Amino acid sequence: MNINDNKHNGGYKNKKAVVLFSGGLDSTTTLKIAIDEGFEPVPVTFFYNQRHETEIEHAKNIINFFGLKKHIIVNLDFSGIKGSALIDKNIKVPKNRIKAERTSDNIEKNDIPATYVPARNTIFLSYALAAAEVEKASDIFIGANYIDYSGYPDCRPEYLASFENMANLATKAGVTGEISFKINAPLLRLTKKDIILKAVEIGAPLNLTHSCYDPIEGLACGVCDSCILRKRGFEEAGINDPTQYFNRRH
């Protein structure tokens, strides 16, 4: 099965699409792509006790920017599970970890970072699938990327293809043939530079996005994996990064 990395499941009367939306650079670009492809997006954002919960406010601001009517915010209590630097403050967020270019080919199994949240994308996509079945939306969009990825196993194309297969086996709409669910990952094979260039081209509001895993005094730390990948992407794209970084002030 080939995951839809550059096309959607066309031909359906209902043009709704569920979009996993964090308020970050990748998901904002993905949301704008869905809008430009003619979908009425149903963005789904998660509060899961994450260290960087400020992303929720960024997500709300971006929803307002686009003037969208619907925005689902799901509250998940990950505090009892922990197992990640993003939800357990006793685990430090790795800093200055990314030196050279990192891809799925050169990241070892034991190099999955402490910011990996156990089964997060599976849980998020499951909620998105439930929403899609209720909304009768055949398409689910996710801003997953594995070219410049940080080592997350649930951002790989084979994972997304497997989830798409499961979605059509595990839902009433799927098994009855009412809906053929498709997972759309339009950024999957783009570098961060290419994502930023695409975002600028289509008018995604990058100035409203948030990427940092470990904000300090309301500012991006500048040295976590996510900040480094973002900064490197803007530099390679030759575009000014609108993010305010804590380490630039100190």
UniProtKB/TrEMBL annotation:
<comment type="similarity">
    <text>Belongs to the QueC family.</text>
</comment>
<dbReference type="Pfam" id="PF06508">
    <property type="entry name" value="QueC"/>
</dbReference>
<protein>
    <recommendedName>
        <fullName>7-cyano-7-deazaguanine synthase</fullName>
        <ecNumber>6.3.4.20</ecNumber>
    </recommendedName>
</protein>
<feature type="binding site">
    <location>
        <position position="224"/>
    </location>
    <ligand>
        <name>Zn(2+)</name>
    </ligand>
</feature>
<keyword id="KW-0862">Zinc</keyword>
<comment type="pathway">
    <text>Purine metabolism; 7-cyano-7-deazaguanine biosynthesis.</text>
</comment>
<keyword id="KW-0479">Metal-binding</keyword>
<keyword id="KW-0067">ATP-binding</keyword>
<dbReference type="InterPro" id="IPR014729">
    <property type="entry name" value="Rossmann-like_a/b/a_fold"/>
</dbReference>
<feature type="binding site">
    <location>
        <position position="212"/>
    </location>
    <ligand>
        <name>Zn(2+)</name>
    </ligand>
</feature>
<dbReference type="GO" id="GO:0008616">
    <property type="term" value="P:tRNA queuosine(34) biosynthetic process"/>
</dbReference>
<keyword id="KW-0547">Nucleotide-binding</keyword>
<feature type="binding site">
    <location>
        <position position="221"/>
    </location>
    <ligand>
        <name>Zn(2+)</name>
    </ligand>
</feature>
<dbReference type="GO" id="GO:0008270">
    <property type="term" value="F:zinc ion binding"/>
</dbReference>
<keyword id="KW-0671">Queuosine biosynthesis</keyword>
<keyword id="KW-0436">Ligase</keyword>
<feature type="binding site">
    <location>
        <position position="227"/>
    </location>
    <ligand>
        <name>Zn(2+)</name>
    </ligand>
</feature>
<dbReference type="InterPro" id="IPR018317">
    <property type="entry name" value="QueC"/>
</dbReference>
<dbReference type="GO" id="GO:0005524">
    <property type="term" value="F:ATP binding"/>
</dbReference>
<comment type="function">
    <text>Catalyzes the ATP-dependent conversion of 7-carboxy-7-deazaguanine (CDG) to 7-cyano-7-deazaguanine (preQ(0)).</text>
</comment>
<feature type="binding site">
    <location>
        <begin position="21"/>
        <end position="31"/>
    </location>
    <ligand>
        <name>ATP</name>
    </ligand>
</feature>
<dbReference type="GO" id="GO:0016879">
    <property type="term" value="F:ligase activity, forming carbon-nitrogen bonds"/>
</dbReference>
